[in-house]
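haha ok so turns out i had the wrong file open the whole time. this is the CORRECT one, sorry everyone. sequence first:
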Amino acid sequence: MPIIKINGHSIELVRKKIKNIYLRVYPGSGKIKISAPQRMSEVAIYNFAISKSEWLIKQLAKTQSVKRKPHIESKKYISGEKHYFAGTAYELKVFIHSAKPRIILTNKVLELYVRSGSNAAKREKVLNEWYRSQLKRIIPDYISKWENAMKVKVKEFGVKSMKTRWGTCNRTAGRIWLNLQLAKYRPECLEYIVVHEMIHLIERKHNKRFYFLMDKFLPDWKVLKEELNDQMKYN
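then structure:
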């Protein structure tokens, strides 16, 4: 596979049937990849990579402090840990109080308020319920957007923890489920899974028609799939 060298960094070049060019740094491995349209010239790709040098340096610095994948890293839920929301790492600060447990998100800090004596399991539950509430706030907008585009109707959606899937679809019930862990990744990744599952309301199987519809509604879906595949295999 072609490799581009920028300021001593090796960038893997992949050409795809996409409209735009993308530069990705994968947090789990620190791997750098450019996904470019098939007909884009090497000069244009190189110039794009050069223009992103400053951004690339910052992203690589972040990966050096975050070695594990956001959703599988072992956590103790104590102050100083890094926890993710919407693709951004936040420092966890735990506060003990007597009121109802809650989460407050500030600039680069995720404040967790819990009662005295709470263990890691209870703190994880509070954080997961906050993740769930955030997804339930965000997902309806995506569903509404794509219902209009696809001319389909999602009768119900839910959020739950899943070990091997990012989402599922029940065509008979008109219901889709989204993985709770998606709250930790970029909004574009969440939207990709919403689109994927909604297309299953039109086409049950992963066949030519399904992928034709994916290309039609979300032309850059393969880039997002690749990003999530660095975390968990997904069809």
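The longest helix spans residues 120-150.
again sry for the mixup
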